[in-house]
């Protein structure tokens, strides 16, 4: 299975989970973007797309991430894992994850898993439900 992982971040918190996943499959091709960089990646060769982002404002997807999702979700029907980091003081905690999932569902793409975490990914801080999701993601990407 050929896997692409794309991360969007303002502070680097998104990359923490990407680094964690890479230890289970070093063959994952990855790209990291700040929230202002233009993105032009052809996802056609990949079987699974993992995308992670921060949430902008009160629940928004960063514009370059949103454009990446729209451009590719309209062209291809892929399997996706969507994750995001956010701050639970906001009503729309990790709202970007929900927005990405809406776009993917509306374009008939397949979402395997979603995962949201508070600001910085720390494995020891996961509750049982989050551990289960993370383990399912690891099982999916493990060669």
- Fill in the CATH topology: Rossmann fold
The H/E string reads EHEEHEHEH
- Helix fraction by DSSP (H/I, runs of at least 4): 25-40%
Strand content: 25-35%
Mean pLDDT: 93
Number of domains: 1
Count of DSSP helices? Answer: 4
CA-based gyration radius: 14 Å
Ends apart, CA distance between termini: 8 Å
In the CATH hierarchy, what is the architecture at level 2? Answer: 3-Layer(aba) Sandwich
Structural class: alpha/beta
Physical arrangement of strands within the biggest beta sheet: 2-1-3-4-5
- What is the fourth-level CATH superfamily? Flavodoxin domain
- Report the uncertain regions: none
Structural account:
- The chain has 143 residues and is of the alpha/beta class.
- Helices cover 34% and strands 26% of the residues.
- A five-stranded parallel β-sheet has the order 2-1-3-4-5, with helices on both faces.
- Helix 3 (95-106) links the parallel strand 4 and strand 5 (110-118).
- 33% of the residues are buried.
- The model has no long low-confidence stretch (mean pLDDT 93).
Chain-wise SSE layout:
Layout (H helix, E strand, L loop, with lengths): L2 E7 L3 H10 L6 E6 L13 E7 L8 H13 L3 E8 L8 H12 L3 E9 L9 H14 L2
Parallel strand pairs: 1-2, 1-3, 3-4, 4-5
List the defining traits of the structure above:
alpha/beta; Rossmann fold; 34% helix; 143 residues; globular; five-stranded parallel beta sheet
